[in-house]
Amino acid sequence: MSIELRDTDVIWRNAKLATMNPAIKNTAGKSHYGMLEQHDLIVRDEKILAILPAGSVPANQCKVIDAGQRLITPGLIDCHTHLVFGGNRASEWEQRLNGVSYEEISAQGGGINATVNATRNSSAQQLEIVSQKRLNALMAEGVTTIEMKSGYGLDLVNEEKQLNVVRALAQKNPIEISPTLLSAHAVPPEYKHDPDAYIDLVCDAILPALWQKQLFEAVDVFCETVGFNLTQTQRLFETAKRLNIPVKGHVEQLSNLGGSELVAEYQGLSVDHIEHLDEKGIEAIKRSGTVAVLLPGAFYFLRETKRPPIALLRQYGVPMAISTDFNPGTSPFASLRLMMNMACVQLGLTPEEAWQGVTLHAAQALGRSDSHGQLAAGFMADFVVWDAQNPVDIFYELGHNPLVYRVYHGEMTHCDDLHGLN
Question: What residues does Fe(3+) bind to (predicted)?
């Protein structure tokens, strides 16, 4: 490959590259993290220009960074979060641990309605301040792309407020944010006895108004016995389809309603939670190219016992992503590395599947498979330099952070000075 380098290009040298590129095989013919040794990672502007055998292109006046035989991986992608919300539900959790039922807590105004009230009563500035702290923790662990949902406003004014906070966070931080409209998250108190009327509000007012303002890029729904039924979900998806908006769904978490099949019918980006997904649903999402998003934090926090059908998903070759599902009620964990560990220990994924789940497949779940989730020519230069030798090291030993440098769009951001590059 003939490349003439510019003096503004950057060469990352003397590193182990876990490219996550499935086309790169080891001697046994397996992808094995797409591992490359003795290769240079060449960055031009915001993208990866090339990955070439070490020293095969003259450096000329380029900046050369010696990675000191450390590990470089793609930046982590957190493809399902509810990061922007007001309030705190730790006291509810304490009540549950002390034997108070969820029904009793809800009757006292707790549960999701407590978060809705707190979010509605928070200013945009207050929401941004608390959300920034959560985001900081995720970026410090190597997250370079993240999805953020609305869904705690549940009316036009407050859903817009949430999404405006998401936009502000995107403008002020070195991270790519994928905003999602989740107005169909729960029935707000004022529509408690008429959920169909609330879906009318979402479809006729909230969704088109906020889409016109370009505040989101996909539509989500909680399709469940305690959320919205298939008919209501289909109404929402039809509205999205008319506007050419991608869809996704919280489905099959507590029961099997067939929500995954409905998402597949609309060529949805992802089906998320999916503990109760059956083979018929798996066949449907395989045909539609939909990603299965596993949320081990919620599985753990809710003490679930029914695992997602990992073996069947493997059998059908359905891509599996992993995410924090960061939210105040069921997964208050701002650590994607912890989720990778949980996915292996609780759900039975292999370490390589866990890595694919936060890179390759997470990018696909956000409609970014052509630009994110791999170290490859033409992809965004979003990657992490780790003080580690093997990918499994990153989530094997938790409690300290092996991140050395986080690189976003070619620019170095977070740095652990104790492990500074040569």
Answer: 80, 82, 250, 325
Phi, psi (deg, nearest 5) at residue 366? -105, 10
372 is in an annotated binding site: no
Give buried/exposed letters for 94-122 (b at 16+ CB in 10 A, else e).
ebeeeeeeeeebeeeebbbbbbbbbbbeb
Is residue 421 within 8 A of residue 67, CB to CB? The reply is yes
Tens-digit pLDDT profile for residues 26-59: 766 777 999 999 999 999 999 999 999 998 988 8
3-state secondary structure of 15: strand
276 is annotated as contributing to ligand binding: no
What whole-number distance in Å separates Cα of residue 107 and Cα of residue 102? Answer: 9
The domain over range 10-74+373-415 is classified in CATH as 3.90.190.10: no
Both tokens of 113, joined, read 């309605």
The CATH number corresponding to 76-366 among 3.10.20.30, 3.40.50.720, 2.40.50.360, 3.20.20.140 equals: 3.20.20.140
- Centroid of chain to Cα 414: 20
Q: Is 82 annotated as a binding residue?
A: yes
374 labelled as ligand-binding?
no
What is the per-residue pLDDT across 61-78, written as a single tens digit (0 to 9) for each? 899 999 999 999 999 999
Label residues 295-324 b or e (16+ Cβ within 10 Å = b).
bbbbbbbeebeeebbbeebeeeebbbbbbb
Determine if residue 346 is labeled as part of a ligand binding site: no
**327 known member of a binding site:** yes
The predicted structure's pLDDT at residue 421? 47
The annotation status of 253 as a binding-site residue, yes or no, is yes
User: Is 325 annotated as contributing to ligand binding?
Assistant: yes
Do the first three CATH levels of 10-74+373-415 and 76-366 match, i.e. the same topology? no
